[in-house]
Amino acid sequence: MKDKVILLVEDNPDDVELTLRALKKNNIRNEVVVAKDGVEALDYLFATGQYAGRTTAVQTQVVLLDLKLPKVDGLEVLRRMRGDERTRLVPVVILTSSKEEQDVIAGYKLGANSYVLKPVNFDEFVEAARQLGLYWLLLNEAPPATA
Amino acid sequence: MRGADLEGRVKDLENAQKAAMNILEDFGEERARFEHVQMAVFNILEDFGEERRRLEGTHSATLNILEDFDREKSVLQNAQRATLNVLEDFGEEKLRLEKIQRATFNILEDLDEEKRKAEAASEQLRERIVLLRQADEEIRKLNEGLKRRAVELEAINSEIVSFSYSVSHDLRAPLRAIDGFSQALIEDYSGQLDDQGKGYLRRVRHGAQRMALLIDDMLKLSRVTRAEFHREGVDLTALAREVAAELRRANPEREVELSVDEGLRVQGDARLLRITIENLLGNAWKFTRGRKPARIELGGRVHPDGPPTYFVRDNGVGFDMAYADKLFGAFQRLHDAREFPGTGIGLATVQRVVRKHGGKIWAVGEVDKGSTFHFTLSKEAT
Question: Which of B157, B179, B182, B188 to mutate to test binding with chain A, by most A CBs within 10 Å of its CB?
Fold first, then answer.
């Protein structure tokens, strides 16, 4: 299970720290790759830029994607992922503060697999992380690597 | 005797003859004289005849003249008669003409009246046209104003949307940090913190969480305002029973007698009505805490000359009618937040929903005797 990488796309260092803490509290010890913006996320996914030459043999198990990001926003990252054979089937969980209906609809229309609100209350955040880990890392059977 | 008598007689005869002859002779003379007179008379008569002829000529001339005159006269008479006839005919004609003229006058008079009326009507029409043109111009101006206003509102609305988005996304992140790292301190550094220190951190977390709640409710309120409105048939009874079931699931320990009238069907926006019922029943549920038994009732009443009214009644803590106008203001609270938690947004949201439906909401209550919230969902009677 450890070889299943989680890609966390999050620009807020506090949220990165809290997310990692919430995962750790649930004993989720998978490698977590953090991308601070959409460009970094795409570089990692397509082995370009700073991630050029990265082996894509280890496929991302799940992408935790924030929507409001610098440079390339979360919905655009999702669009590019769904438009590329290599990432078309990678599960994407939108993890965001926005409850706005239009974001939820846009997220699902672009092919998000889940839409989860980041709670303010840390206890609830930990519970959300637990359920996400349980579902996407243990229960859900990831699509076979196509690359 | 014969001889002597005869002689005597002959003599007598001769004597008579002689006498007769003498007479005759005398008569002859007389006759000649007579003839002479006769001749004279004849002459006279002849003269007279001439005279007579002349007279006769004159007479006949006169007669001719008279005759001529007579013809002339009869011609004249005829002419006169004809003239009279003509005049008579003309008189009739005149009468007819007069009648026609009178009729014409009447018609003209009527026409005049008609014309006056038409002119008055036309004047009225002109006035109305002027008024209509003015109204039209007004409407055009208003329309332009409205269009401008719509554009402005569109801009404001999109600003509100991005503002809401920003509030929703950006304000929550720091709160999450405050709450999360406070919890991290409590967990990771509990050895270095005494109970007071841990208590402070719990207050920090409580503050952050309460602010998050306020932000959520503010966003709900603004979503209600911005929400598109779809009026449809809604089964209010079923909706209220669903909400009641949710409340029971959330607080299974509560003993609440909750009744909902049968067959409450309304015209409204189902989503917005759900928010209304959630708030009203939620409030009733909250403010009857500690009542045994707690009683909550949702019902409807029809009225002959007004829209139907609906109500949510409870036997909870009630409120002082002196503050009734504060109930529906955003962030206004009449109860202690520690005893009855809440943000003071619920009833403001309910009021916005009711107003969006064209209805009204008002509350009646008494401290410790419960509250009743009445509302309508339209202006018209059913």
Answer: B179
